[in-house]
Design goal:
The chain has about 180 residues and is mainly beta. The chain has one domain. About 15% of the residues lie in helices and about 60% in strands. The chain contains four helices and seven strands. The protein has helices at about 1-10, 60, 145-150, 165-170, and strands at about 15-35, 40-55, 70-90, 95-110, 115-130, 130-140, 150-155. Strands 1, 2, 3, 4, 5, 6 and 7 form a seven-stranded antiparallel beta sheet that branches. Strand 4 (about 95-110) and strand 5 (about 115-130) form a beta hairpin. The protein is elongated. About 5% of the residues are buried. It comes from mine drainage metagenome. It is found in: Cell outer membrane. It holds the Pfam family TonB_dep_Rec_b-barrel.
């Protein structure tokens, strides 16, 4: 009956908290020195930051009061630093290149760290004023997000039960 159905309903509520803080030092110089084809440019960055994520599980969900839901308790902090540079170099009047490199390092509070360099090289070729051809090669590094890195044990969704009451509401006469 609808009254019985309503007695089974509840609200699964959690309150998560997170922050990300970064400090960057940027340096740019579009006129580092001259080549016959033009000015060589430079950009550099130093970065330091930290992150925090905390997601407490709903005590009712963790105790199994909600069916077909999920609960997870997790949280953690990590710090990171990075250094990067980029050069723009005009090779000929019609050809230029950009070269960049970056190193990122992450340290999880409580153990575990990872760091990796990445780089990119690109070329721009302009044989006509109305035509620009580009090519590049780059590598990438992605640190796992905070939830993936710090989630604790919990339950997950299960979709193996038919809701016969809801089926009757949507399609009366079905079984």
């Amino acid at each position: 009956t609808p009254a019985e159905y309503q007695s089974w309903l509840g609200i699964d509520h959690t309150h998560s908290e997170s922050y990300t803080q970064n400090v960057n030092l940027n340096v740019t110089n579009t006129d580092l020195f001259s080549l016959p084809a033009g000015q060589v440019g430079f950009a550099g960055v130093l970065q330091y930051g930290n992150q925090m994520w905390h997601q407490p599980a709903n005590p009712l969900a963790a105790a199994g009061y909600f069916y077909n839901g999920s609960s997870g308790n997790g949280g953690g902090k990590r710090s990171n630093y990075a250094a990067a540079f980029e050069f723009h170099v005009p090779i000929f009047s019609m050809l230029s290149t950009d070269m960049s490199a970056r190193f990122d390092h992450f340290h999880n509070d409580g153990g575990g760290s990872s760091g990796r360099p990445t780089y990119k090289i690109s070329f721009a070729f302009r044989p006509l004023s109305t035509l620009l051809l580009r090519a590049n090669y780059a590598t990438a590094f992605r640190m796992p997000n905070m939830g993936y890195a710090f989630i604790g044990p919990g339950t997950t969704y299960y979709e193996g039960i038919t809701d016969f009451y809801k089926c009757q509401q949507v399609d009366p006469g079905s079984s």
